[in-house]
Automatic annotation (TrEMBL):
Chain segments carrying region Disordered: 104-137, 417-440, 638-658
Source domain of life: Eukaryota
GO terms for MF: sterol binding
Pfam families: Oxysterol_BP, PH
Alphabetical GO biological process terms: lipid transport
Organism: Dicaeum eximium
Keyword Membrane: yes
Keywords: Acetylation, Endosome, Golgi apparatus, Lipid transport, Lipid-binding, Membrane, Transport
Record's protein name: Oxysterol-binding protein
Record's subcellular location: Endomembrane system; Endosome; Golgi apparatus
PANTHER family registered for this protein in UniProt: OXYSTEROL-BINDING PROTEIN-RELATED, OXYSTEROL-BINDING PROTEIN-RELATED PROTEIN 11
Keyword Ligase: no
Length: 699
């Protein structure tokens, strides 16, 4: 109470995307437990422009910066505010928290409980949506006392008695019944008109009420465990308090079966039974298979992910999913609904980042260490645009452990030679390196071949290894990536943990690089992808390095998909090239001599990858493994796709359980563990080294 002082002053308040931040004069009224604001100090004697009840509010400093904080009222209203500096923010936050705590406790002590009442949608009919209408009685006092039962004054129960648990269970059953009535009332509304069952606020109300009941059931479970421990003295060894399955039935109000009962085994399609009956992978041949590029055909598959139809239809499922997630929650083990999947595996997505093999091959053509580093940066920045399939953010399939993907690209030698001489007027092209003649005297093909292989080497954590090589140019790249995804509210963040190494064997150079984070934004409306974070590229031998920043869009203003970077010589700390632009549009490279080069990614030629037909692929190659899921998604049959996907996931879990019981380690096929990373079993640098050793011995 010593700190219960009224404070006032100017703060910036965020209004909307159009108006943005505006200065407003705020007054903290401790006696009334109100936060009020006015246009300015001179209008303080007038009616406030806005008022928030602080009882039950949550005051949260923001992670965005040291100036911003939010006030989330119990009514659902929110003020996003910004102080002039960190000290002023702390002053406001501490005073608001003290006032909030005081009035929240006062409500519980001084107000009698209100009689339980049901929420009637009929009384809301004249409003645009329940989120904008407030009944006079819907203040903080009524909010905190609906269904609240207090013990008689002065009586404290040290240990929860069994009959109290029965009372709680009965009250929760009543609440569940009211929640079901609420859901039915919403669903009985017409599909069109003034207030519809598809109203965004009503959908959010369904999701949040469901999440509330699930949370209450979890808490009740914890109370039961605590009661058992109080009776026995302590919890039994090995007991864990785990989250329960949702107690509120989703029934049939999700169109595509968030809680559907799948048909019995006898009724499952043959393809599903086949998916579940594939033998244990370690029992199949785990010997590396040499893929003949001549068996691969140019890919004709072109699944652009620009269709919003399924996402629009399934918004209620998304809301339900979001209601069960917590900020910062790891999504690795969360099973996401099938309709948000794009029609390819994550392993194939890594291959699609190699869709400009001509730029990849010409890296080694650079006539100097400086030029080779710049060419690698150019290739690196052009790879992300084609890796995305369409503008809509969808999620590739999570690879099954042991899953592999193979493909290749063919580039006419004449095309690569031409590109090598037009990289930049600031850098002269190098002469083509004379390749060794075929020992059998056969004519060399008139194209270069880039081979690619990827394998899912671990399930928990999910780690993928991929490797690409061009034997004719004596270059290869090896990488491993651990995808860590987190829920960030209205977006999902994916951190790409790992490292890649490009080997230019002709020059004896190794370039280490990392990958940026990816974010799926606006997941409730039109989801889109942006990249963020700082990545570094280093070549220890030459002393050249590159620092690249992928900028996420600021909260207000700013450009999308912006990227900046620079290439420097570490010894002299001299910047030899700067780059700026958008990673999915136009990039501008400025060289040390002042010349500038523009690269329009939308006009870059894309070389189609070559893939073996399904009938020639092994059972654990990506396209054959996921073929039934992909076909169902193309046909728009979400239920069938979900069934095939679930069969694959169940098989993976069963295999993992069997390996754990028999203490059998997983056997990888193409990649070997090397410290914290994974390395291809037969990399080009080993092959070349062995050939050189053999040639030396023969001489």
């Amino acid at each position: 109470s010593d700190h219960m002082e009224n404070i006032c002053g100017y703060l910036m308040k965020y209004t909307n995307l159009v108006t943005g931040w505006q200065y407003r004069y705020f007054v903290l009224n401790n006696d009334a437990g109100l936060l009020e604001y006015f246009v300015n100090e001179q209008s303080r004697h007038l009616k406030p422009r806005g008022t928030l009840q602080l009882a039950g509010a949550v005051i949260s400093p923001s992670d965005e910066d040291s100036h911003t904080f939010t006030v989330n009222a119990a009514s659902g209203e929110q003020y996003k505010l910004r102080a002039t500096d960190a000290k002023e923010r702390q002053h406001w936050v501490s005073r608001l928290q003290i006032c909030t705590q005081h009035h929240t406790e006062a409500i519980g002590k001084n107000n009698p409980p209100l009689k339980s009442r049901s929420f009637s949608l009929a009384s809301q009919g004249s409003a645009n949506s329940p989120g904008v209408q407030r009944r006079p009685s819907q203040n903080a006092v009524s909010f905190f006392n609906v269904g609240h039962h207090r013990l008689p004054t002065g009586k404290r129960v040290p240990i929860m008695q069994p009959d109290h648990l029965v009372d709680v269970r009965e009250m929760m059953s009543q609440a569940e019944g009211q929640q079901r009535d609420l859901i039915r009332s919403i669903e009985c509304l017409p599909a069109s008109g003034h207030l519809t069952s598809l109203d965004q606020d009503l959908l959010m109300l369904k999701a949040t009420s469901m999440a509330t009941m699930n949370c209450l059931n979890d808490c009740f479970h914890i109370l039961q465990l605590q009661h058992a421990s109080q009776q026995k003295g302590s919890l039994p060894a090995g007991t864990t308090i785990s989250w329960l399955e949702p107690k509120v039935s989703l029934a049939n109000h999700f169109k595509n079966g968030a809680a559907q009962n799948f048909p019995a085994e006898i009724n499952k399609p043959a393809s599903v039974r086949e998916e579940q009956s594939i033998a244990e992978p370690c029992q199949l041949t785990r010997e590396p298979e040499e893929i003949n590029p001549d068996e691969e055909l140019e890919d004709i598959c072109d699944d652009k992910e620009d269709d919003l139809g399924a996402v629009e239809e399934q918004r209620s499922v998304i809301l339900h999913l979001l209601s069960q997630l917590k900020l910062g929650m790891d999504l690795t083990r969360v099973v996401l609904p099938t309709f948000i999947l794009e029609k390819r595996s994550l392993l194939e997505m890594y291959a699609d980042f190699m869709s400009h093999p001509d730029l990849f091959i010409t890296i080694t053509n650079g006539g100097s260490a400086e030029e080779r580093m710049i060419r690698f940066v150019e290739y690196y920045l052009t790879s992300f645009h084609e890796g995305r399939k369409g503008a809509i953010a969808k999620k590739p399939y999570n690879p099954i452990i042991g899953e592999t993907f193979h493909c290749s690209w063919r580039m006419p030698r004449s095309n690569v030679a031409t590109d090598a001489g037009t990289n930049s007027s600031a850098h002269s092209s190098s002469e083509q390196v004379t390749l060794p003649k075929d020992p059998e005297g056969q004519a060399e093909p008139d194209y270069y071949t880039v081979k690619f292989v990827a394998e899912q080497v671990s399930h928990h954590p999910p780690v993928s290894g991929f490797y690409a090589e061009c034997v004719e140019r004596n270059m290869c790249v090896n990488a491993h990536v651990w995808t860590k995804s987190k829920f960030l509210g209205m977006s999902i963040g994916v951190t790409m943990v790992g490292e890649g190494v490009l080997h230019l064997l002709e020059h004896g150079e190794e370039y280490t690089f990392s990958l940026p984070c990816a974010y799926a934004r606006s997941i409730l409306t039109v989801p889109w992808v942006e990249l963020g974070g700082k990545v570094n590229i280093n070549c220890a031998k030459t002393g050249y390095s590159a620092s690249i920043n992928f900028h996420t869009k600021p909260f207000y203003g700013g450009k999308l998909h912006r990227v900046t970077g620079e290439v420097k010589q570490n010894t002299t700390n001299t910047v030899v090239c700067r780059v700026q632009g958008e990673w999915n549009s136009v990039l501008e490279f400025t060289y040390s001599n002042g010349e500038t080069k523009y690269v329009d990614l939308t006009k870059l030629s894309v070389t189609r990858k070559r893939v073996r037909p399904l009938e020639k692929q092994g059972p654990f190659e990506s396209r054959r493994l996921w073929q039934h899921v992909t076909e169902s998604l193309r046909d728009g049959d979400i239920d069938k796709a979900t069934e095939h996907k679930r069969a694959l996931e169940e098989r993976q879990r069963n295999e993992e359980r069997l390996r754990a019981e028999t203490e059998t380690p997983w056997c990888t096929k193409y990649f070997l563990k090397d410290g914290d990373g994974w390395v291809y079993h037969k990399p080009l640098w080993k092959t070349v080294s062995a050939a050189q050793t053999q040639q030396t011995d023969s001489n």
